[in-house]
């Protein structure tokens, strides 16, 4: 298929379950207002843990979206995905029916899947025996079930898949869905990421890897991307979902368009299990490939929603990668990390950050990087510190990088 035959792809619906709001309006107002979503862990007793803070989703009731029997047979990560997907469909005023169901697909990424169910069932196995394990353990635990269950609960019968590329999973899901619509394999796709990994074993494991902040006495300032005093990321949970459509299909039903997706790049560092390659060559290539795919020159970028994890290695590496791709124009481009407010949703992060990027373009408003009070000399770009900013945004990137060396960049553009 030649470039001339490729279809244009637009974002028409958004849904969000996050530590700073359980719908799109709350999430966006939280971002623009610099709301902190991080606090002491309440989902389990974390007294014995080195890290006792997280960005938890608050006040979420799965029964707003699911009946009690169905909700009980799902892990929290799948509940989040279904809720955010239903929000996105409602936001787009998009109805899935017998006429279009086979042309609507789903790709929802996750880094870990149903870890809470696995932990709970391991306890049942050890204390009560193997015959007392739940028959729903496996379908509740496996990572693809967010996409599968979302299809069951929305009726979407088109392409259905799950990306599991660690912290790049949500962005890979959006990018892969973009390709399917662009190349004519679906008219619309529900896509994004979900995660619910604030569990005893997950927090213990990330802490043992020295990846998490231990700023337990001041959780509101623990996640501080690009700040010299950053000491690790803060776990978050939730889901971010986009409904994307082929442009002509969206126009035919007079859909509201938030932004257009125009580029997707992915690479691998092939370097280390958890650490980015020094200098950020892999991340830089992902950005370059995405821009090449979009046919957009680096000097046209107005905003970058950074991966920005608040870890010592990531933030300086991503800064170096941005500078290598943008050259002299890097100093004028606004960059921000919304993880400073939500924490790091692992496989869900690319989903909520794609939502944030589309909203930034639609509203010409840049979310801030909060807690940036003592800039790292090695992180010397414009990170929109502490307060949101109004600016005309025509082109924006969303970066996601994951353990295993996965690098993903999405390019969004103002629809015209």
TrEMBL record:
GO terms for cellular component: cytosol. This is 3-oxoacyl-[acyl-carrier-protein] synthase 2. Keywords: Acyltransferase, Fatty acid biosynthesis, Fatty acid metabolism, Lipid biosynthesis, Lipid metabolism, Transferase. One of its GO terms (biological process) is fatty acid biosynthetic process. PROSITE patterns: KS3_1, KS3_2. Belongs to the thiolase-like superfamily. Beta-ketoacyl-ACP synthases family. It comes from the Bacteria.
